[in-house]
Amino acid sequence: MENSNFNQFESIDNKMLVSRLAVSDRTAFYKKTYAHVAGGVLVFILFEWLLLQSDTIVEFALSMTQGMRWLLMLGGFMLVTTYAERMTMKTQDKTKQYLAYGLYIFAQAFIFVPMIYIAAIYMETGPEMLKQAAIVTLALFTGLTAVVFVTKKDFSFMKTGLTIGFFIALGLIVAGSLFGFNLGLWFSVGMCLLAGGSILYQTSNLINKYTEDDYIPASLGLFASLMLLFWYVLQIFMSRD
């Protein structure tokens, strides 16, 4: 019985789950994870700035936003996402994990190029809008993260609902691209709710899924949810202008 109870707290390669670590070790893991999320945001900003300096890249990215081209771009982004997530989870080689994380950040920066370019150049309050959207996103992310740590609730039960929600959203995006209809403000609001649920789920995973060496895959999951929230918060701000 004792072995059975102990084994349920073990993870791959006999590494202890974060929930079973001493308080000081858990705190160190959380600091590493959120430092890597913050680092990811800074690298994203750098990549975005570099991409926007090239007229060729901007024109190409803008050309990929309509119909089947947008679906191709979205499909490529999903392939990169899947590869990066699998790479960070299946290897303990930190170099490979960092490369996968960096590749994912670059993919995020590229797919954001059209929206940020349009917001910054063509919207009357573009720069201020980007700043406001970023502040709202970070505030929501911080609040949702705090909910998990304060309540200590396990949000892993949300996995099925989030999976179904993302498949429905993907279906609507595909339909909108193929048939040329605008998904509108309420779709963006719904996606913000879905992104919020994803943040709760990913934050809960910090405690219940990962081991002390998994701060890079944990960071990638949180960063992905943060960027999804930012995408649709920015969409809402742009719809008002």
How would you characterize the overall build of this protein?
By secondary structure, this protein is mainly α. Helix 4 packs antiparallel against helix 5 (94-122) and helix 7 packs antiparallel against helix 8 (184-208). The longest helix is centred in the first third of the chain and has 30 residues, at 23-52. It has nine helices and no strands. The relative contact order is 0.15.
Q: How would you summarize this macromolecular structure in one to three sentences?
A:
With 241 residues, the protein is an all-alpha fold.
Run of helices and strands: HHHHHHHHH
Q: Which regions contain 5 or more consecutive residues with pLDDT less than 50?
A: 1-12
User: Which of globular, elongated, flat, extended, rod-shaped describes the shape?
Assistant: globular
The oligomeric state of the chains shown is: single chain
Radius of gyration using CA atoms only:
19 Å
Summed up, the helix count is 9
Biggest β-sheet description: none
> Could you give the distance between the termini?
63 Å
Average pLDDT, all residues: 85
Please provide the count of β strands.
0
Helix content: over 70%
Strand content: under 5%
Class of secondary structure makeup: mainly alpha
